[in-house]
Design goal:
Radius of gyration: 21 Å
Mean pLDDT: 88
Low-confidence stretches: 1-7, 9-42, 443-452
CATH topology: ADP-ribosylglycohydrolase fold
Number of strands: 2
Number of domains: 1
Strand content: under 5%
Order of helices and strands: HEEHHHHHHHHHHHHHHHHHH
Length: about 450
């Protein structure tokens, strides 16, 4: 059962001093966590007594939850709240993308509702990397970062070859292929010297990556690093930290924590409190020990706590009888939401895609909405800024937490069909293939009655 926010703050403090009794979250399938056991050739993973169907439900939930967030935010990506309100009112569903295509955005004009951007493409690419050779991901020493860099440069090279083979007089095919190539060009410039182990060239390229800003690079694919480590947030953090070869400064810590949040949300018996606890309890790189500065991500977490607490402290100014408007919205909830937005405005960075800003909005949405999927999507998308990226991260965490079965029917079915039919992205096939790959890695106890 989801906790109230004020009770949650108190419990969160208690959690760090003592062990809290596990509570059961939304689920239809009970799952038992076992003690960690050694698996020869693999990192120590907590083995889950879980059926393939149940594992598939969680993996698909993370994929589709993220895609829903991406699709809800894509039509108004980088817009201000005023612009969103003027054209769309209050966004509570999926809208067509009436926008020009771009390398980081949609790759087609006027993409149908449910379509996605690079925020989904990056999760697809990371999943493809795992499936191409799971041994490059699962190993006792962590993911093979050089293989990851090589995988990305190979993807870029294939797009260059496709551009060279384009044969047309009409400029449209060239423009379409250039968008595919441009999407990866900044990343390839960093990945190439990394895979070649040319440290000076890598450092030079890294510090010019997207202008040398602390962008949310690793957060784009971090959720899919957390999925293969259900119930093992520290292992997920370590893997994501290793693979965050495009991140600067504490953005690497943000990437690691993003993966850890997804990993903590995967077990069926997880509670919101247990998921959020990783923000303090998981720190394998020792960021808390940073002299003078401390751990920046923890400071962001505390800011999110304060924002949500202050916003939720607003009382009902109109009285119970006038609580609901003609469209059915709770005026008290909307007043608190507006206050949360105003408080977040004070913490904005120079660029909307700054890793710290994405992290702050994500945490505020999770806690303000008490892990409610639809409300959290509405929170993020209507706030504006880089709303499709934030919603994709928040959606992945909550999709992993609730599982595909519990996601809103109208949103998930539309996103599945549009991605499959318009973009060639079959999220169900991806989830199935990743489920099978994870089972083959012996990360889970074999289901005696496999039905997948």
């Amino acid at each position: 059962m989801l906790y109230t926010f004020r009770t949650g703050i108190l419990l969160l403090c208690i959690l760090f001093l003592s062990t809290c009794e596990q509570t059961t979250s939304v689920t239809t399938t009970p799952v038992k966590m076992e003690v960690q056991k050694e698996v020869p050739g693999l990192p120590d993973l907590p083995l889950l007594s879980i059926s393939k169907d149940s594992l598939y439900n969680k993996i698909l939930g993370a994929l589709v939850g993220s895609a829903i967030g991406d699709a809800m935010g894509a039509p108004t990506e980088m817009w201000s709240r005023q612009q969103i309100k003027l054209e769309y009112g209050f966004v509570d569903g999926l809208d067509p993308m009436v926008r020009e295509p771009s390398p980081e955005g949609t790759w087609d004009y006027n993409l149908a509702a449910g379509g996605t951007t690079d925020d989904t493409r990056w999760k697809v690419l990371l999943t493809d990397f795992i499936l191409a050779d799971p041994n490059n991901f699962y190993s006792e020493s962590g993911p093979n970062t050089y293989a990851f860099a090589r995988f990305l440069t190979d993807q870029y090279s294939s797009e260059v070859d496709r551009l060279k083979r384009t044969n047309a007089f009409d400029p449209a095919p060239f423009e379409e292929q250039m968008r595919r190539l441009s999407w990866l060009q900044e990343w390839a410039v960093v990945a190439k010297p990394y895979q070649e182990k040319d440290l000076p060239a890598y450092m030079d390229a890294l510090h010019k990556f997207y202008g040398g800003e602390m962008v949310c690079a690793g957060m784009l694919y971090a959720p899919m690093i957390g999925v293969p480590y259900p119930g093992a947030p520290e292992l997920a953090y370590r893997a994501a930290y290793d693979l965050s070869i495009f991140d600067l400064g504490y953005a690497r810590d943000v990437t690691g924590l993003t993966a850890a949040l997804v990993a903590a949300a995967m077990p069926y018996e997880a509670s919101p409190l247990q998921v959020l606890s990783v923000l303090r309890s998981v720190d394998p790189q020792g960021y808390f020990k940073s002299r003078l500065v401390g751990r920046s991500t923890y400071r962001i977490f505390r800011e999110a706590l304060q924002i949500v607490d202050e916003a939720k402290s607003i009382g009902d100014p109109q009285g119970e009888a006038l609580r609901f408007t003609t469209d059915g919205r709770d005026t008290l909830y909307m007043a608190r939401l507006q206050r949360a937005f105003e408080l977040l405005d004070r913490k904005l960075q120079d660029f909307p895609f700054h890793a710290g800003e994405i992290h702050l909005i994500n945490l505020a949405a999770l806690m303000f909405c008490d892990f409610d999927f639809r409300k959290a999507m509405e929170f993020v998308v209507n706030f504006g800024r880089d709303n499709d990226t934030v919603a994709a991260v928040t959606g992945a965490i909550l999709g992993a937490y609730h599982g595909f079965e519990k996601l809103p029917e109208d949103l998930k079915m539309k996103v599945l069909s549009t991605n499959r039919e318009k973009l060639g992205i079959d999220l169900e096939v991806m989830a199935h293939d990743l489920t099978m790959a994870m089972q083959k890695q012996k990360a889970f106890i074999e289901d005696p009655n496999p039905s997948l």
